[in-house]
Structures are given as C-alpha cells and as structure tokens.
Design a protein that fits this description.
Elements: H1 3-19, H2 21-49, E1 53-54, E2 57-58, H3 59-76, H4 80-90, H5 92-97, H6 103-133, H7 142-172, H8 176-189, H9 201-207, H10 217-224, H11 235-260
Antiparallel strand pairs: 1-2
Helix pairs in contact: 1-6, 2-3, 3-6, 4-7, 7-10, 7-11
C-alpha cells in the first residue's frame, strides 16, 4: 500500500473542499434552518404526547440525537453518485480509469479529504456546542474511542453504499432518480431523520439488521450510551455488525464494479 499516494489524494480533497468555502457556509446555514425546524417539530410532538418520555427518549435526548445526526450526515456524506454522473457525461471517467491506481481506492481517498474538512467545520463544533449547552450530558470516556472506531466503519459502509449506486449509473447513465431513492432510504432507515426508537416494533426488528442503521444510528448510540460499556450493553454486538457490513459491502462492491466496468459506455471525451 502506497501511503504517500493516499495522503496526497486526501490533501487534494481537503484543498478542493476549502476552495469552495462559500458552498460550505451555505450548507451550514441551510442546516441551521433545518435544526430550527427540528426543534419546533419535535417540541410539538412531545407537547401533544402529554409525557416527558416517548419510546424511552426525552425531548432533550431526541434533540441531541437529531442535531448530532445532522452533523454526522454532513461529515460522512459523499457525493460519489453525482460525481460519477458528471464523469460519465463528460467522458472524464475514462481518464480516471487510466490512472495507475484502483478506481475505488482513488475515489475513496479523494473524498476522504472532504470528510476531514467537514469533520472540523461541522461535526466537531456541533459536538462541543451540544456538550456545553447540555452541561456535559455526553459522557467523555471510552465512548469517544469506540465512537471513532464506529465512525470509521460507518464511513466505509456509506462509501460502499454510494459506490454500489454509482456503479448502477454505468448501466443507466441517469442518476438523479436513483440517487434520490438512495438518499431517502438511507436517511430514513439509518435514523438520521427519525430516531429508530420511534419506529414500529415490527419495522425496527428488520431495520436493526440492515446496513443503513450502521451509518448513523450505531455511532450515535455508541457516543450517547448512558449505561456502562460492558459486553452486556450491546455495544460489542453493534460494532461487530458494523464490521460485518464493512466487509460484506466492500466485497460486493468490488465484485459488482469488476463486472460492470467491462460494459462501460461514456459520452464526451
């Protein structure tokens, strides 16, 4: 493994993200509006429920979860499908395939630079603000180490899902509809939009085994775990499930890509 090559790609991705600073701040402003809407929406939900605790979560628990989920979404999001669509239409995909590096690795490390910058611009400030405003409601102990491990696996899973959908674009050459479906499914079933605790029991029993839960819900549960971090707390099972999906989706993505790239058709040049 050529570490210097991957570090160079990461650096390029970071410089690219910093080059479009206005776009980053517009995104942050849009997320601020979204968080204000979340606050009033869930405040109304709890007011109509007539109780301080719904499905085991207080209003404060739900708000902290959703604010961090939004920050985590901004941090982990990769726009691989849109990038693939532009490359197919312009013909730039051929030039990337000719590079002396595996295309999947090239894509991952290029986008990883974006993730590094968004971590410091979005998730870290949000985490600090939430911890200060809630007077240290988030435990700062071994959960931070487990959270970092969980987030790394979530990043790999999110990349694998995006890459699988992007590979489908080699056949359709149209991405908007496919990507919108993917975004809706991931945001809903991962807990990024609605905490999974609010799902019906029958649906939650199915969702807990799917990979989408491992992207946002699992890292957040690891971070916000209230009881002790023991073998009986379920944390080890959640991390092992993440590891399983990391391996399974990576292998499935490699296989699907190796078959699909042989039938590639691009425009432009």
């Amino acid at each position: 493994m050529n570490v210097k090559r991957y570090l160079a790609l990461t650096k390029i991705g970071m410089m690219d993200e910093l080059h479009f600073r206005l776009g980053t701040f517009v995104t942050l402003f849009g997320n601020l509006i979204y968080l204000v809407l979340i606050f009033f929406l869930w405040k109304s939900i709890y007011a109509s429920a007539g109780t301080d605790c719904v499905n085991g979560m207080t209003f404060s628990d739900t708000l902290i979860y959703l604010v961090l989920a939004t920050a985590l979404f901004n941090f982990l999001e990769m726009f691989i499908v849109w990038d693939m669509s532009r490359d197919i239409q312009s013909g730039a995909l051929i030039l990337k395939l000719l590079k002396p590096i595996d295309f999947r690795r090239y894509t991952f490390w290029s986008f990883f630079g974006h993730n590094v910058i968004t971590f410091f611009l979005t998730f870290l400030p949000t985490f600090i603000i939430i911890d200060v405003v809630t007077h240290g409601s988030i435990a700062l102990s071994i959960n931070l180490i487990l959270f970092v491990i969980s987030v790394v696996m979530a990043l790999v899973i999110n990349f694998s899902v995006d890459m699988l959908v992007a590979t489908v674009c080699l056949f359709t050459e149209s991405t908007w509809g496919i990507n919108m479906v993917k975004e809706c499914v991931v945001l809903l079933l991962s807990g990024a939009s609605i905490p999974l605790a609010f799902f019906p029991e029958s649906l939650r029993s199915v969702v807990q085994y799917l990979p989408f839960k491992c992207i946002y819900d699992t890292p957040l549960n690891v971070l916000l775990q209230k009881e002790g971090y023991t073998l009986n707390s379920g944390i080890l099972y959640k991390l092992l499930l993440q590891l399983f999906w990391c391996i399974a989706l990576t292998l499935a993505g490699k296989l699907f890509w190796s078959v699909s790239v042989k039938k590639i058709t691009v425009n432009g040049g």
